[in-house]
Amino acid sequence: MNLLKTSLCLIGLIVWQSNCRAVNNAEICNQNGITYGKHQYYDEAIECFTQAIALQPDYAEAYYNMGVAYGNKQDYAKAIECYQKAVKLDPSHAGPYYNMGLAYAEGKKDYDKAIECYQKAVKLEPDYTEIYCSMGFAYTNKQYYDKAIDCYKKAVELDPGFVEAYYQMGIAYYYKQDYDKAIECYKKSIELKPDYAEVYYNMGVAYKDKQEIDKAIQCCKKAARLGNKGAQQWLDKYQQWLNNNCNRK
Q1: Which residues contact 9 (CB under 8 A, 6 or more apart)?
Q2: Which of 33, 68, 90 represents a domain boundary (last residue)?
Q3: How many CA atoms lie within 13 A of 146 on its CB side?
Q4: What does each of the 249 residues of the chain score in pLDDT, given as a tens digit?
Q5: 245: domain range?
Q6: Domain holding 72: CATH number?
Q7: How many domains does the chain have?
């Protein structure tokens, strides 16, 4: 049954690609590209968006969608080119600025330009929660921890269930060596997502730095049971340290 569904899906995508080549309709080509992108056929998606733009050179949405496809291929330079073209044609939408920021941050590690893009996006859409979290991450990487925390606070104000914002806020507090507040954020994140192994591990690290070793071990054991390798490595090293000290005595 799964094989049949896959075959039918591929046949459908081939038909859509044929339609894109055959019709002189930019909107259809753009929609076909979106469909390819949803199925992770990014090269085919880009071909459709390229055809849409050839038919309608000022098609900002097609440039934006092509940028998303290039971003998913991790070709960040081309993604940025597409987003720049999209905002030049239509500067009224937050999406291209936000995704351009992600491309600068993830692909180029250029956090200054990423923040610049995020700021433009948030002016256009002040309630766009993910922008604040991404901007906080960029500020954290620039070691502007207070600004990062302000961004994460805004994110959870807009969406109190935003797990990642609480987690990243905890990391920013940790780098400020405010371990109590870091742990508080980690606990909130775990409350919302009880199986978040990475958070348990980082909470264990914070407890370790507070010299609360028993709590650190409990957190790392939980993280290790959930599959976090770093936590298991720390537990192994700690056990080895205990063994070595026992042998010396």
Answers
A1: 39
A2: 90
A3: 0
A4: 443 333 334 434 444 444 555 456 999 999 999 999 999 999 999 999 999 999 999 999 999 999 999 999 999 999 999 999 999 999 999 999 999 999 999 999 999 999 999 999 999 999 999 999 999 999 999 999 999 999 999 999 999 999 999 999 999 999 999 999 999 999 999 999 999 999 999 999 999 999 999 999 999 999 999 999 999 999 999 998 888 776 655
A5: 195-249
A6: 1.25.40.10
A7: 2
